[in-house]
Protein backbone atom coordinates (compact mmCIF):
# COMPACT_ATOMS: atom_id res chain seq x y z
CA UNK A 1 0.00 0.00 0.00
CA UNK A 2 1.03 3.58 -0.57
CA UNK A 3 0.16 6.73 1.32
CA UNK A 4 0.01 9.63 -1.12
CA UNK A 5 0.19 13.18 0.26
CA UNK A 6 -1.15 15.71 -2.26
CA UNK A 7 -0.54 19.45 -1.83
CA UNK A 8 -2.51 21.89 -4.00
CA UNK A 9 -1.80 25.64 -4.07
CA UNK A 10 -2.87 28.54 -6.23
CA UNK A 11 -0.37 29.46 -8.92
CA UNK A 12 1.75 32.55 -8.38
CA UNK A 13 -0.11 35.59 -9.63
CA UNK A 14 -3.57 34.14 -8.96
CA UNK A 15 -5.49 36.22 -6.43
CA UNK A 16 -5.88 34.41 -3.08
CA UNK A 17 -8.62 36.23 -1.13
CA UNK A 18 -8.65 33.58 1.61
CA UNK A 19 -4.91 33.99 2.08
CA UNK A 20 -5.29 37.77 2.26
CA UNK A 21 -8.04 37.42 4.89
CA UNK A 22 -5.79 35.19 7.01
CA UNK A 23 -2.88 37.60 6.58
CA UNK A 24 -5.06 40.54 7.69
CA UNK A 25 -6.32 38.58 10.71
CA UNK A 26 -2.75 37.72 11.71
CA UNK A 27 -1.78 41.40 11.47
CA UNK A 28 -4.71 42.40 13.70
CA UNK A 29 -3.39 39.85 16.21
CA UNK A 30 0.00 41.67 16.16
CA UNK A 31 1.81 39.13 13.98
CA UNK A 32 3.18 41.95 11.83
CA UNK A 33 6.22 39.95 10.68
CA UNK A 34 3.94 37.88 8.38
CA UNK A 35 4.48 39.19 4.85
CA UNK A 36 2.20 36.97 2.76
CA UNK A 37 -0.19 34.04 3.24
CA UNK A 38 -1.26 31.55 0.58
CA UNK A 39 -3.98 29.04 1.44
CA UNK A 40 -4.07 25.63 -0.22
CA UNK A 41 -5.40 22.11 0.12
CA UNK A 42 -3.88 18.96 1.56
CA UNK A 43 -5.18 15.46 0.86
CA UNK A 44 -4.06 11.96 1.85
CA UNK A 45 -4.85 8.96 -0.32
CA UNK A 46 -4.20 5.31 0.52
CA UNK A 47 -3.71 3.29 -2.65
CA UNK A 48 -3.01 -0.32 -3.43
CA UNK A 49 0.44 -1.10 -4.70
CA UNK A 50 0.66 -1.29 -8.50
CA UNK A 51 3.18 -0.58 -11.22
CA UNK A 52 1.65 2.73 -12.28
CA UNK A 53 0.70 4.43 -9.00
CA UNK A 54 2.56 7.62 -9.92
CA UNK A 55 0.80 8.00 -13.26
CA UNK A 56 -2.58 7.33 -11.61
CA UNK A 57 -1.91 10.04 -9.01
CA UNK A 58 -0.91 12.46 -11.79
CA UNK A 59 -4.13 11.64 -13.63
CA UNK A 60 -6.26 12.16 -10.49
CA UNK A 61 -4.60 15.50 -9.81
CA UNK A 62 -5.11 16.69 -13.40
CA UNK A 63 -8.72 15.52 -13.61
CA UNK A 64 -10.14 16.17 -10.13
CA UNK A 65 -7.89 17.08 -7.22
CA UNK A 66 -6.46 20.27 -8.73
CA UNK A 67 -7.55 22.80 -11.32
CA UNK A 68 -4.43 22.95 -13.53
CA UNK A 69 -5.49 26.31 -14.98
CA UNK A 70 -5.10 28.15 -11.66
CA UNK A 71 -3.49 25.64 -9.27
CA UNK A 72 -0.16 23.89 -8.91
CA UNK A 73 0.19 20.55 -7.17
CA UNK A 74 2.84 18.23 -5.89
CA UNK A 75 2.67 14.92 -4.14
CA UNK A 76 4.75 12.63 -1.98
CA UNK A 77 4.45 8.87 -2.01
CA UNK A 78 5.47 6.56 0.81
CA UNK A 79 5.09 2.85 1.08
CA UNK A 80 3.16 1.78 4.18
CA UNK A 81 2.91 -1.63 5.76
CA UNK A 82 -0.11 -3.08 7.49
CA UNK A 83 -2.96 -0.97 6.14
From TrEMBL:
> What is the protein's name according to its record?
Phosphoribosylformylglycinamidine synthase subunit PurS
- The main place the protein resides is cytoplasm
- Keyword Ribonucleoprotein on this protein? no
Q: Which NCBIfam families match?
A: phosphoribosylformylglycinamidine synthase subunit PurS, PRK05974.1
Q: Which GO terms describe its cellular component?
A: cytoplasm
Instruction: Give the EC number.
Output: 6.3.5.3
Instruction: State the family named in the UniProt similarity comment for this chain.
Output: Belongs to the PurS family.
Species this chain originates from: Salinibacillus kushneri
Q: What is this protein's function?
A: Part of the phosphoribosylformylglycinamidine synthase complex involved in the purines biosynthetic pathway. Catalyzes the ATP-dependent conversion of formylglycinamide ribonucleotide (FGAR) and glutamine to yield formylglycinamidine ribonucleotide (FGAM) and glutamate. The FGAM synthase complex is composed of three subunits. PurQ produces an ammonia molecule by converting glutamine to glutamate. PurL transfers the ammonia molecule to FGAR to form FGAM in an ATP-dependent manner.
Q: Which reaction does this chain catalyze? A: N(2)-formyl-N(1)-(5-phospho-beta-D-ribosyl)glycinamide + L-glutamine + ATP + H2O = 2-formamido-N(1)-(5-O-phospho-beta-D-ribosyl)acetamidine + L-glutamate + ADP + phosphate + H(+)
Give the location in the cell.
Cytoplasm
Return the InterPro entries for the record: PurS (IPR003850), PurS-like_sf (IPR036604)
Hey, which pathway is this one from? Purine metabolism; IMP biosynthesis via de novo pathway; 5-amino-1-(5-phospho-D-ribosyl)imidazole from N(2)-formyl-N(1)-(5-phospho-D-ribosyl)glycinamide: step 1/2
Q: What class of enzyme is it?
A: ligase
GO MF assignments: ATP binding; phosphoribosylformylglycinamidine synthase activity
> Might you name a Gene Ontology BP term for this protein?
'de novo' IMP biosynthetic process
Assembly notes? Part of the FGAM synthase complex composed of 1 PurL, 1 PurQ and 2 PurS subunits.
Its keywords, alphabetically, are: ATP-binding, Cytoplasm, Ligase, Nucleotide-binding, Purine biosynthesis
- The domain of life is Bacteria
